[in-house]
Amino acid sequence: MALEVVRLVLGPLENNTYLVADMESKTAVVVDPSFGSQAAVEVAAARGWELQQIWLTHAHFDHLAGVAEVEAAYQGRLPVGLHPADLPLWEKRGGASQFGFNFEAGPRPNLIFTHGQHLPLGHETLEVRHVPGHTPGHVAFHHPSGVMLVGDLIFQSSVGRTDLPGGSFQTLLASIHTQVLSLPDTTRLLPGHGPETTVGLERSGNPFLNG
Ligand SMILES: [Zn+2]
Ligand SMILES: [Zn+2]
């Protein structure tokens, strides 16, 4: 269970871009590279980690604006993972123009996530969990040591917005109940924005789940 996670806060929407590494093999992935993800490449290099893949929790622009920067540092060799239900959103650049943002699009996602899929990372394995609601193809990445990267599904004392195209509050709540609250209270939740939390803290204190 030698997983290490580094959080970088990047871009105008203060996205959490995560480096997730297997300490034994020194292989790593970058999750949701936002604007300015050259910083993630540099942190990985400083630690002697070899980036292997780019994983996207969903296709909103602020979670993928840095894909091209990371790819540039690796000669475009890194597979980009996304759930197919978010490909239509990816085609629209994750809604960037709606918010007045523009950026170089990275390569089309070519690692297709499915619910229950096991993603090897060196000697470790993370599991893909399909958690729609914020977007139709939103996924979380769960590691059996008790950590889950949850993107914009759930935040400390809040949940992902569901007023954007493809969003559904009922679907979001169902995803949280089946895929988050079913985990042990000690499970760390690493969201796409803001500080980390735990299943237990959100189970008892999240106003959106206790209305
Ligand atoms: Zn989002
Ligand atoms: Zn976001």
Summarize the structure in short:
This protein is 18% helix and 30% strand. The chain has 211 residues and is an alpha/beta fold. The N and C termini lie far apart (37 Å).
Account of the protein in words:
- With 211 residues, the protein is α/β, with parallel strands linked by helices.
- The protein has one domain: Metallo-beta-lactamase, Chain A, CATH 3.60.15.
- It is 18% helix and 30% strand.
- The chain is built from five helices and 14 strands.
- The strands form three sheets. Strands 1-2-3-4-5-6 form a six-stranded mixed β-sheet, with helices on one face.
- α1 links the parallel β3 and β4.
- It is globular and about 45 Å long.
- The model has no long low-confidence stretch (mean pLDDT 96).
- One zinc ion binds next to loops.
Q: Based on the coordinates given, report the CATH architecture.
A: 4-Layer Sandwich
Q: What is the overall pLDDT average?
A: 96
Q: What class do helices, strands and sheet pairing give? A: alpha/beta
End-to-end C-alpha gap: 37 Å
> Major sheet: order of its strands?
1-2-3-4-5-6
- Morphology call: globular
CATH superfamily: Ribonuclease Z/Hydroxyacylglutathione hydrolase-like
| Bound small-molecule species | zinc ion
For the CA atoms, what is the radius of gyration?
Answer: 16 Å
* CATH class designation: Alpha Beta
Number of helical segments with 4 or more residues: 5
Residue windows where pLDDT falls under 50 for at least 5 positions:
none
